[in-house]
TrEMBL record:
Pfam families with a match to the protein in the record: MGH1-like_GH
Domain Mannosylglycerate hydrolase MGH1-like glycoside hydrolase: 32-413
Cross-referenced SUPFAM superfamilies: Six-hairpin glycosidases
Biological source species: Devosia salina
Entry keyword set: Glycosidase, Hydrolase
Keyword Hydrolase in annotation: yes
Protein name per Swiss-Prot or TrEMBL: Mannosylglycerate hydrolase MGH1-like glycoside hydrolase domain-containing protein
Amino acid sequence: MTTDQTALRNLAIEVLKENDQGSYTVPTKGLYPFQWNWDSCLTALGQAHFDEARAWTEIETLFAHQWPDGMVPHIVFHVYSDGYFPGPDVWGTNRPTATSGITQPAVAGFAVRRLFERASDRALAERKARELLPKIDKWHDWFYRNRDPEGEGLVAILHPWEAGRDNSVDWDEAFERVPTEGIAPYTRRDTEHADPSHRPTKAQYDRYLWLVEKFRSLGWDNARLHDASPFQVIDPGFNAILIRACADLADLADVLGETGIAAANRARAEKGVAALDALWSDKHGLYLCKDRTTGQLVESASLGGLLPAFSAIPVQRAAAIARTIERWSEAVPFIIPSQDPADPRFEPKRYWRGPVWLVTNYMIADGLAAIGEHGVAAHITRSSLDLITKSGFAEYYDPITAEPCGGGRFTWTAAMVLEFLDAARA
Ligand code: GLC
């Protein structure tokens, strides 16, 4: 490592330690004061670079709050804080420790396999992986039972926050069908911590809350939510993460001799990869979302359509995604923007409608490197590290100016830096 790289590594570790609450890590102080699902799983990959035991604890804590039906919630409200809205009272999920009632990208299966493979404490890794394996399998089963009722091989998200790409252009059309009448009056807290012009609009927020209130009125009964939701979107990115997690969990289960779990997850992954192909768009060189309520593909070229590179899609599709990223990179100096820069709806500073996130960069680079697209993967890694060097450990970045946006001293950004430094060395 060069001196600069060592300095970056030390800073990343400092951010991770600073946001560590003992058994879970907050994404950043102020804006996000609780535990978030996919943040924690990706954070653990960073923690493993300096404390393997602590990395396992991060994921274990998340799964300690898995619902009896198998769902793993998107937020666990471990402590009281009035700095975040919507808090536990709005969700009303009646869990022993308050949680939200929706889920997030199922990155745990991937993260646990990676932790297991790299672990130097083999005995600890085997014990922890054995404990987590059935829980993750139960979550995967929950997805296909509750979010793919017709068994098509792809799951729907019922709330934009489930995708992790909160206010992407992808949801605009389907969101029009979500009403706003009758929601309880509320005060947002996010706009006190971050620039309001970068955050979702009020019209979007009203709809986020309408969905939460609707699901709460159904007692968060997951057997009923899918069909009752006016918002059912098949996001290729979300599905690709789940498919990759199923495939990784299958491999891990094989190593641990859990043949039943291995077979079930391999079947899910294979069916998912085959079904994903119906979402491919030659015109955009990526996959598109599908609105399950209308059966139509959504005309929006976004990061969600590039993320399938993270799963075992056909090599020619992944290669086409690499070319799309190269094309986008001619329009913006820093990659990967969350929306096609040529799209008139591209906004370089507004949440998930243009900015760059290091977590999605990481997953896409990982997939592209695996199929031999080393040039583009290295470009993504370089761009990610350039952003950090120029602008620090922000939540996300403007792909044109590299301006740091959203929360600062951000946990998963720091975790990804530790991963990218490794990739850059390799
Ligand atoms: C925002 C992001 C989401 C993330 C959360 C915590 O809501 O859109 O993906 O999990 O912040 O970092």
